[in-house]
Amino acid sequence: MVTFDCCIEDAKIYFGGKLVEGGIVIDNGKIVKIIKDVALIQADHKINAKKNLILPGCIDVHAHLRDFKLSYKEDFYTGTCSAAKGGITTVLDMPNSQPPTINVNILKERKKAAKKKTVINIGFYAAIPSNIDEISLLVREGIFGFKLYLHHPLTEINVESDEELTKYFSEIAKWNTILAIHPDDKKTIEKKLSLLKREKLSPLDIFLKTYTPEGEKKAVERCLRIIEKTRTLLHACHVSNSAALHAIQNAKERSLNVTCEVTPHHLLLKTSDLKHWGAFAKTLPPLRTQQDIEALWEGLKKGIIDVIATDHAPHAVEEKEKGFLEAPPGVPGFETMLPLMLTMVKYEKMRLDALVALTSHNPAKIFGLRNKGEIAEGFDADLVLIDMKKEYLIKPELFSSKAKYSPFSGWKAKAKVVATIVNGIAVMEDDEILVPAGSGKILERGAFS
Hints:
Structural class: alpha/beta
Shape: globular
Mean pLDDT: 96
């Protein structure tokens, strides 16, 4: 009789768009069978799921793993342990590290460092390089996309010139690679910040009046006009308001190559939460109004929004305790995204099939992550086990992330991640990391033309 590496039994499996009771047989990191009765299966390792729910592991396409000179905020080990505790099996790392990922040499160094520390799968973005000829080199090195910070570019590219952006967009389009944008308008921000600092406004009001929904919409519409000519694959990060979302909806109706994501904090928190949490809830884009939140939820229901991502952006608590304008923007999200979204499923705010699509299937499809994002034979055994009856309070002091803060502190989650399996190996169980640093994989996007 054939002996397999692992067998999960007594589970409720999200398979083929519905829940089925049974087991999953795993060998060489792959799902080889999904069967009703595993009693006759021989395996080196057996996991009793205790009737818990099994979903495909989450794929987080927007995260900041820091490390290098920013390792005091987070490093590849603490970040990926945090992701594993949150049911995330694959993370795509943004390029605004220190030094930023702007060329092949730095990319190789990040991959080398991550390989020694990661406990899950990691892929990488790069910033758009100043030298357009380096785009092809970065693509061949396996990046999953380029990131353009329209409000704060990481390289010498002139973000205020449509002509220059068109040139770079066209080159990226040649390589069939995603261009992810942080949509905001640099000139508008600089002008408003200069004027507002002269007025007698609170730091919070200055912040909100600087990073406006109008600026976000303006940046989105500008990039959409460019891709209409260049046919670049555009991905709008952390859409936060109804105006920007409406622009994306119109573009999709015109069959433009655009996808977009939303974060849990923009779905669940609003401007008034900034008044309560101060800089601990400061993000870019800022938290918006209740009307914007409702528009985002409607966008999820209509399928306008393609992905839910964390925008995990950890900082030291001491940095967040600075004055509001001086404190860096960003909140940790690895350990809260899936529990919070499952809580929304319990509240019937969203359907389970939509959650799986937004956190697993769609990210895999959009970013070319082959054999990921589904529970099916032949797919990678990246799985998350969830106790849908377990309730607990979110306590940031228990995070594996170095960022021990959260604007969701004290929230009650109505479902808990109890185990995370990556490439067929149990990485986390009952909040304990079971594997050493370096057990994860570095992913490279190989599909380019």
